[in-house]
Amino acid sequence: MKIKNLKIHGKTFLAPLAGISNLPFRLLVKECGCAVVCSEMVSAKGIFYNSEKTLTLLSSKKEEQPLSVQLFGSDPDSMATGAKVIQDLNIASIIDINFGCSVKKIVRQGAGIALMREPKLSEIILNAVRKATDLPLTIKLRSGWDPSGQQAFEIARIAQDAGVDAIAMHPRTANQGFKGKADWHLIKDLKQQLTIPVIGNGDINSVEDAQKMIALTRCDAVMVGRAAMKNPFILSQIDDFLETGSYQIPSNYMLFRTMERLTQMYVAFFGEKPACQMLRSRLSWFVKGLPGCSAFRAKLSGINSKNHILDLINEFETSIA
Predict the structure, then answer these.
(1) pLDDT at position 124
(2) Which of 67, 143, 198, 224 is such that its CA lies 20 to 30 A from the CA of 35?
């Protein structure tokens, strides 16, 4: 598929995940075969005011390209400025605008899914961002504030008319969060209404789920979030399955090497102490279902150095060999 003039080699996107899709995790998922990775949400106002924390979120390496950087905000001027800064930094292949975050502190700012209640403001923002950058421009939205999807369809039509090049849809309402079931039929309806590519998101927990979503909705690609946290190989597995009808399940050896790789990258990027604090939870994702995983997770709560982590990984690998 193509988004504007950008050729995408594959049908898989890593979803933007607050606190998760940082540079080390994106690099890992890219190494595991993801077609396009997406940054955490980046505040347009944070860019506007040169926030150090925000600028850290824009850290990138060429190995993760193509990278989609997701902006959030509700002020047209700062959104346009943020898009221009991202383009000038030469780190992004795609700029994405968040219309889907339902976290209360984001909604209170009038950003994320709050914009789906404001079609006129949304149109102003999208036109301002489109004018500020010639990079491929996408948006990620939910079904809206009610299950009908009508707000999503309206915002999507506005976006397409404003020059947005693709749309990702997570068909849950603002109030659902991640509860209940994603209504894939809304993705199908959206795809029928637009001429630009549509990326489906929501309830893709397995390779087979992705194939079923594409078969039902005819979406152009799929976006995976939480499932990639415990299996970063799922994105390449999806592409393999769509292309050949089969996919490889990673061996335990590959799994443990991946855990070691993530550890090394986290320590290099965040520093040893912060990395250890974050890896206490992140490494536990990879071992769910393995014999002895509960004991391993308990030991992770006490990690205090890179070597300590690597020793625990080796110990756990040996115990299940």
Answers:
(1) 98
(2) 143
Nearest residue to 224 via CA among 245, 244, 242, 251: 242
Tens digits of per-residue pLDDT, 207-241?
999 999 999 999 999 999 999 998 999 999 999 99
Q: Are 215 and 268 found together in one domain? A: no
Say if residue 203 is in the same domain as residue 275: no
Structure tokens at 209: 């789920």
Nearest-CA neighbor of 41 among 77, 86, 11? 86
Phi, psi of 74 (to 5 degrees): -135, 0
Q: Are residues 97 and 7 both part of a single domain?
A: yes
Q: Are 313 and 256 in contact (CB under 8 A)?
A: yes
Is residue 136 located within the same domain as residue 271?
no
Full strand arrangement of the beta sheet holding 166-173: 12-14, 221-224, 198-201, 166-173, 137-144, 94-99, 67-72, 37-43
- C-alpha dist (Å) from residue 209 to 33, 192, 216, 235: 18, 21, 11, 12
pLDDT of residue 52: 86
Distance CA 254, CA 243 (A): 23
Does 28 share its domain with 131? yes
Buried b (16+ CB within 10 A) or exposed e, 220-247: bbbbbbebbbebbbbbbbbbbbbeeeeb
Maximal CA-CA distance, the chain: 60
199 & 294 share domain:
no
Q: Residue 321: its pLDDT value, please? A: 77
Question: What is the per-residue pLDDT across 133-174, written as a single tens digit (0 to 9) for each?
Answer: 999 999 999 999 989 999 999 999 999 999 999 999 999 998
Instruction: Decide: residue 251, CB within 10 A, 0-12 exposed, 13-18 middle, 19+ buried.
Output: exposed
* Residues known to be catalytic: 101
The residue ranges of DSSP E strands in 253-312, in sequence order, are: none
Report in angstroms the alpha-carbon separations of 270 from 22, 59, 259. Answer: 10, 12, 16
Token pair 């592409």 is found at 239
| Residue 126 and residue 256 in one domain | no
Domain that includes residue 205, residue range: 2-244
* Residues 74, 45 within the same domain: yes
